[in-house]
Every structure is written in structure tokens, then in C-alpha cells.
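Deliverable D2.4 — example input (C-alpha cells):
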């Protein structure tokens, strides 16, 4: 079956999660989500997902196990890194998911943000709609700017996409084990001042609209905090499967103060209101 122009505009025809991209980006998927897993990640990291994490009795223990695994796999344990830097007498740069999260927390339209948007594009098949400016078709000037930053050698090393794969799978495991209590959705809020970063697709009624979100977005679990980032509040019922990271996942990670959730995009039905 040939893809429509509308489907082609939203993303690739293939991805690594086993669900057609057109479905994954749709409102229908958000209403009736099914589990998502990045192909091969849990199977090739059995020591983490089948041995270490099942023994965790709290999110703190699970986070410790995850960070120990990541430190061993990628050499990014904070204490080891700091000692190595002191011995060398100079700062060493090693690409890590923690550096990307920190960069995202400061500003989403940075090279760190581009790398993370590139990861979503690679794994879930969703094109970004915005990076410093609205992102046009492949080959356009805006697309070239995004592509250059997402492939930056400064961040695109140390198997950075694999690190993000593991972060996503750990997030999904933790949500199901400690946070969801049988729920499939979380109510989250996003403050905006314009619709430049998200495209208005349909207006259903006075308050309900469908917007096409960027392929990776910041939301908050607090409406008041979301209001600090824009006068218009978008309230969304977000499938847990589209949450890549959230503030309570890792005790030492960035994004603590804003109750932040990093949400994979697509078309969302939201309630729009003025703060």
C-alpha cells in the first residue's frame, strides 16, 4: 500500500518499535496505546533487565542498578570520570545520556536537543517539526541545520543512541513497576505562547484541538509550572509508552525542579486554555 503525502510528512515508513509510524503518530494510538519496545535492547541486556532490575524493591534501588550498568557499559560513572579528570589534569569529554539531559534542560533547540530528536527519528520514525525554526522537507535549509547538529561529533559518540535506547527501556520498565498502578495514561501540561513549535491540525470545539507536536517535547505534571513557560496551557492525556524520561526516574539526573516529562510526539488531542 502506498503511503499518503500526509503519512510521509510525519515520518519514515520504518522504525525500530514494530508499529507503523502512521499509527504511532495518530490520535488513535494515543487513545488506545499498546506497549512499545526498541528491538533487541532488553534481549541484549539481560543482565540488567532480567537479573539486576527485578531484584530492586524501590525506584532508588532500580536507578542505582541502571546507573551501575551504564557506567560499566559506557564508562560514564560520575565518580570514576571525576577521578580520571583529576589525574589527567584536564577535562575529558565523554558523550553520555546525562550530558544530553542536562543540555535539554537548559534549552531544547541546542545540539544536545538535536541529537535527542534524531534518536526519536531513528527509533520511532517521527520527523521533528521544529528545531530553532520550523523544520521543512528533507533537503530544505531548516532540515540541513537540524541534520548537522544531530550528527555533531561532539555528542554523537560513545554509542549515544544505544545509551538513549537503554534509558527509554529503563523508563518504561520503571513506570510499569513503580509508578503507573495499572494506568496507561498520565495527564500532563505544556505551556506555549504560540503554535510555532506545534502545528494546529484540527479544531474540535472551543477548547479541544488536535496538534502535531514536535517529535520530542517537554511537559510538566504541574499545571502551575507549565504556566511559567507560556500563557496557553495544553492539557494532554499522554500514553505512558510515549514517555522517554521524567524527573523522578533518576535521583541524580537533571530536570528536577520543573516536574518535567520528556514526551515523544505525533498528533495529540489536547485541551487548550488560557493560564
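Example output (designed residues):
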Amino acid at each position: 500500500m502506498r503511503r499518503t503525502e500526509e503519512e510521509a510528512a510525519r515520518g519514515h515508513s520504518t522504525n525500530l518499535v514494530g508499529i507503523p509510524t502512521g499509527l504511532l503518530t495518530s490520535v488513535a494510538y494515543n487513545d488506545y496505546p499498546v506497549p512499545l519496545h526498541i528491538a533487541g535492547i532488553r534481549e541484549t541486556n539481560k543482565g540488567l533487565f532480567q537479573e539486576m532490575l527485578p531484584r530492586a524493591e524501590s525506584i532508588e534501588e532500580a536507578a542505582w542498578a541502571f546507573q551501575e550498568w551504564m557506567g560499566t557499559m559506557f564508562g560514564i560513572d560520575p565518580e570514576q570520570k571525576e577521578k580520571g579528570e583529576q589525574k589527567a589534569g584536564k577535562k575529558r569529554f565523554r558523550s553520555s545520556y546525562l550530558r544530553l539531559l542536562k543540555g535539554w534542560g537548559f534549552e531544547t533547540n541546542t545540539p544536545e536537543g538535536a541529537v535527542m530528536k534524531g534518536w526519536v527519528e531513528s527509533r520511532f520514525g517521527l520527523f521533528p517539526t521544529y528545531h530553532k525554526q520550523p523544520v521543512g522537507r528533507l533537503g530544505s535549509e531548516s532540515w540541513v541545520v537540524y541534520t548537522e547538529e544531530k550528527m555533531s561529533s561532539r555528542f554523537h559518540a560513545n554509542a549515544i543512541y544505544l545509551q538513549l535506547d537503554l534509558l527509554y527501556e529503563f523508563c518504561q520498565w520503571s513506570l510499569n513497576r513503580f509508578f503507573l498502578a495499572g494506568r496507561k495514561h498520565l495527564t500532563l501540561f505544556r505551556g506555549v505562547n504560540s503554535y510555532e513549535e506545534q502545528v494546529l491540525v484540527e479544531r474540535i470545539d472551543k477548547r479541544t484541538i488536535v496538534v502535531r507536536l514536535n517529535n520530542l517535547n517537554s511537559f510538566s505534571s504541574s499545571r502551575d509550572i507549565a504556566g511559567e513557560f507560556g500563557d496557553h496551557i495544553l492539557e494532554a492525556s499522554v500514553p505512558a509508552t510515549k514517555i522517554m524520561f521524567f524527573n523522578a526516574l533518576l535521583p541524580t539526573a537533571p530536570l528536577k525542579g520543573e516536574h518535567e516529562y520528556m514526551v515523544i510526539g505525533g498528533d495529540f488531542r489536547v485541551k487548550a486554555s488560557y493560564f
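The chain has two domains: 5-179, 185-274.
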